[in-house]
Request: fold
Amino acid sequence: MTVPLLKIGAVLSTMAMVTNWMSQTLPSLVGLNGTAVSRAGTSEKITLFQSPDEGWQVYTSAQAPDGKCLCTAVIPVQGTCSRDLRSHQLRRLTEKVQNVSQSMEVLDLRTARDLQYVRNTEALLRGLDARLRAAADGHRSLNARSFQELQDKMTELLPLLPVLDQYKADARRMGQLKEEVRNLSASLLALQEEMGAYDYEELQRRVLLLEARLHACLQKLGCGKLTGVSNPITIRASGSRFGSWMTDTMTPSADSRVWYMDGYYKGRRVLEFRTLNDFVTGQNFVQHLLPHPWAGTGHVVFNGSLYYNKYQSNVAVKYHFRSRSVLVQRSLASAGYNNTFPYSWGGFSDIDFMVDESGLWAVYTTNQNAGNIVVSRVDPQTLEVLRSWDTGYPKRSAGEAFMICGTLYVTNSHLAGAKIYFAYYTNTSSYEYTDIPFHNQYSHISMLDYNPRERVLYTWNNGHQVIYNVTLFHVIKTSGEL
Reply:
């Protein structure tokens, strides 16, 4: 999804990853320290290591003898930048500044109050001074009445003594605050020198440069083998136990619309949200009413059209959102339907449409295949089956499945404790059993799809809309910089 929340979910989540790397990785890449970036021939080899104490993961690339670049890209752990040493120093300095500011405000209020009291007693002081001068100039003894008057005046002035004591204490406190300010100034100057005296604009320019390089690297990475799935990221909790939600798998990054389809059969209502934020808040959406109800949750949006299974049939339907019309519909020959060959959770999930880097796929099974999963490449324009593969994996034993780079990945359950258990490679017509942990947080998955544009997994999990980041291992040939 091309919004900040889902960029974190990309394989190389650009801006979020740059932020998390700011304290260690960024300096080495953009020249804020002495870490060198070496080049060998036309390939650039970069090794990014993280602090084990921070729990960051490793990003590596190395050049094989045959000239290929072996790249391992892993999603970083979030929220570690706050523990960086310089971040900690800045936070402490900020707290000191706030404390100094609060202390000065208290002193200002107290000083204003005491000053007003002194002004109010000024007339008494002047009168007492005049009486004492007159007595001294007249060289006469004070009579009892005059002495009593002076004593009364002195009694009125006695409260001034603690005020003067407070003034002296405040003066000492002010001296301490001045020393704190001097120390803060010295600390900030030292920190600025340590950080290389880069101002915000310069750092921002370098961050944008690194982001561009990461985007370029992401484009060169292309396809890869799934080696890991992140912890789930819950986007929203809404709807019934079963349903599907998705973004377009092909449109430009500026298109961030979200589609939402609650329920697994007989549904016709599709909500289209303008952005992910609108989806989260449930605002700014339009409604599409499909001419034919759907079956299951294996729908997908590809290049502005919705592909879904027509209820009580093995017919594939292509519905165009802009024209609000069905462009084409075609039967998938011999494909089971109406809960004949669903996933283990049922829900009329006989036919599951998917999109990966190579195009549109349909996953289903037939009687001829004895209930084993069939993977078919489908022409997105005509819905004709271009080629099919029999995976040999029984569909009723599968919890859910998704395609990445021409490989079908199957979970062994839709319930808690699920793993990505099986992989079928269409490029070699071979399979293997895998053991990739997959945290099924809400214990009932009824939809699982990969989006190649964003490189994340979309999931409907027991009334929760969830995404997962993926970790892919890439083997690519490079020419020029990564």
